Amino acid sequence: MRIGIDSGGTFTDFIVVHDDGSLETFKLRSDPRSPAKVILAGLAQAGGARAEVIHEVIHGSTVATNALLERKGARAALVTTAGFEDVIHIGRQNRPELYNLTPVLRSPIIPRSMCFGVRERTWFDGTIAQSPSAAEIARLKTRLRRARVESIAICFLHAYRNPKNEKRVAAELEGLGYLCTSHDVCPEFREYERSSTTLINAYVGPLMDKYLGELERAGTMGVKRHRIAIMQSNGGFMSAKEARKHAVRTVLSGPAGGVVGALEVAKLSGFSRILGFDMGGTSTDVSLCDGHPRETLEASIGGLPVRIPMLDIHTVGAGGGSIARVDEGGLLRVGPESAGADPGPACYGKGSSPTVTDAHVVLGRIDRDQLIGGGMRLEPDRAATAVDLIAHALKISRIAAAQGILRVANANMERAIRLVSVERGHDPRDFALVAFGGCGGLHACDIAQELGIQTVLVPEHAGALSALGMLLSDRVRDYAAGVLNRADLEREFTRLERIAQKDLPGAELIRSADIRYTGQSYELTVPWRADNPAAPFHQEHQRVYGYSNPERTIEIVTIRVRARLAVEKPRLISKRTAARSAGTPASRRIHSAGAWRDTPVYPRLNLSAARVAGPALVLDYGSTTLVPPGWRFSLDKFGSLKLTRLRKP
To answer: Which tens digit of pLDDT belongs to each residue from 583-613?
Structure first.
């Protein structure tokens, strides 16, 4: 048995592949105070009386992400070359908000007092100019003990070229806490980004180590019942042992599973160019795939640079639990604050703040017994009372307030989609919008209409697609080496591949390189061509920036090797639906397209390949899809709900 698990802010999703290839999905309320408890409860439910058959668990963990965003990581220290103790605080001279006249400086994750310098020096070419003395290391150990550190990040100048000094200091500090070194975590040049990435790994590593230890101990009980793997931000998964050492690689593990799942199911429906739209309870993750997921090395989490290969995902604080409020200027705002799993939206029975979910309840789109197959009973009266807070503040009706909440949330999500498409040279009209997550189907058509998108896909198991994507992913490891001004590139590639073959025997090895024109500050990552490295670079430069200069000299800055080990995946079987009527649906009074309408309500299980015109509401176990007037829908043979915008509504 293989199980995919996606820990969300409101619900934790489970998808189970049984012996016969069938898929089962269910949700449990998340517990931010004890996420491991929810995971273990879900594993017990998945296995039932046959818990011993559980074979492999692939888990998208939010432990590292939440610790970083909430600044609740370990008590970490940065050990660096003397004179560079301020690198984390100085950062770059970039202004992320050009037109903000009162910018707020984002504080680093550790104070200046936790940055320690060591008198050592390695030149840019790897020559050791000064090794740390025994007395220097002894003083450092004393200072670290006094600081009561829990974890230590070691990042010396030019250690990516020669890690000898880092290795020596790390060996001497063994036993003082969780240890990580920059030559292992991020062996690339750019001191600030390398220091930040290594420090983040030290900051979240002890929490991930403790969390995974709890899961593994609970899962063993004398006979090993499950093997834990963790989804990475690059779209592949790694073992729990690797995740303990490189926790920074899990900061976008849940959303990465969604990208993989969205692209795979879209390809079955005939779409390889997609915009992923994953709207959950706390946030919305958007991505663009033009035949394959896009990657980046310039990600930022909570305002902190993370220089590791990651899928290019943009996240906004707009989800079903996003809280609506009226600001000091009298404007309606939605998010980024969320009601989360506890207390949750007002309709869940504990909270009182108005949220996006409460607005849908007020407009009749979510009924009392609709969520997770009726397993969770809502309180519409509490939702109405919460939305009234907005209505009274703005002196408008309850319905207008609910509509306003949804329009503002849609605007936030639409801007996010424009960022990953229009602002990067892609026309969203050339893509299908793949909507998933518990709330994605409720907003997809409105957003598609604003962007001019003609087709929306809502996959089967949309509410747990990120968990399914984890089961559709491969085991992946990334390796890198800084090689600026080096001639022995083939030897370095061979060295990285030797390490990769040892870590993942039998894996496919893929070479790439970060290349730039001489004088440029940043690089493009392109496939490696040993006979002509410049050719793919010029082509990519033309695509990204609109020009290239084949006569200009290039620099190869970093080489990379990706090891990909394919694993057995669940087979998404054709449903072979017939083109027949979807049956006589129930009817409900729902507010859509600006008016109350008697709207057919279809259980997704009853749908067929017959085309049905909106308005309509389609209910699934973990998600709801709203089909407004002017749209039609049908179920394709792989279970995806295909919605098409009519030219003349």
So the answer is: 678 889 999 988 999 999 998 887 877 788 8
Pairing of strands 310-311, 2-7: unpaired
Same domain, 132 and 213: no
Q: What b-and-e string marks burial along 516-553, b requiring 16 or more CB atoms within 10 Å of the CB?
A: bbeeeeebbbbebeeeebbebbbebbeeeeeebeeeee
pLDDT for res 219:
54
Of 565, 589, 611, which residue sits at a domain end? Answer: 565
The pLDDT of residue 223: 37
Both 61 and 123 in one domain: the answer is: no
Looking at the DSSP assignment, which residues form a beta bridge with residue 178? 151
* pLDDT, average across residues 237-254: 91
pLDDT digits (tens, 9 = 90+) for 383-420: 999 999 999 999 999 999 999 999 999 999 999 999 99
CATH number at residue 59: 3.30.420.40
Do 116 and 183 share a structural domain?
yes
pLDDT at 48 > cutoff 70: no
Q: Domain total for the chain?
A: 3
Which helix (DSSP H) or strand (DSSP E) does residue 600 occupy? strand 595-603
* Whether 34 and 182 share a structural domain: no
CA atoms of 400 and 474, how far apart (whole Å)? 47
Q: Are residues 91 and 182 in the same domain?
A: yes
Domain range for 560 is 475-565
Taking residues 373-379, report their average pLDDT.
80
In a domain, 365, yes or no: no
CATH number at residue 509: 3.30.1490
Q: What DSSP designation does 293 have?
A: B
Whether 51 has a pLDDT exceeding 80, the answer reads no
446 phi/psi in degrees, rounded to 5: -60, -45
DSSP string, 333-373: EEEEEE-TTTT-SGGGTS--S-BHHHHHHHTTSS-TT-GGG
Could you tell me if 157 and 170 are in contact, meaning their C-beta atoms sit under 8 angstroms apart?
Answer: no
Domain membership flag for residue 641: no
Query: What percent of the chain has a predicted confidence (pLDDT) above 70?
Result: 95
Residue 271 has which token pair?
A: 């779409």
**pLDDT digit string, tens, across residues 298-338:** 888 877 889 999 999 988 888 888 999 999 889 999 988 88
Q: Decide: residue 229, CB within 10 A, 0-12 exposed, 13-18 middle, 19+ buried.
A: buried
Q: Of 565, 594, 610, which residue sits at a domain end?
A: 565
Check whether residue 188 and residue 76 sit in a common domain: yes
Which residues lie below 8 Å from residue 138, measured CB to CB, with a gap of 6+?
none
Is residue 432 in some structural domain?
A: no
Q: Is 0.85 surpassed by the pTM of this model?
A: yes
What token pair was written down for 47? Answer: 């296995």
- Mean pLDDT of the chain, nearest integer: 89
Q: Which amino acid is at 409?
A: A
> Is 561 in a helix, a strand, or coil?
strand
**Alpha helices by DSSP H, 160-303:** 164-173, 182-185, 191-220, 240-245, 253-268
Q: Is 1 helix (H, G, I), strand (E, B) or coil?
A: coil
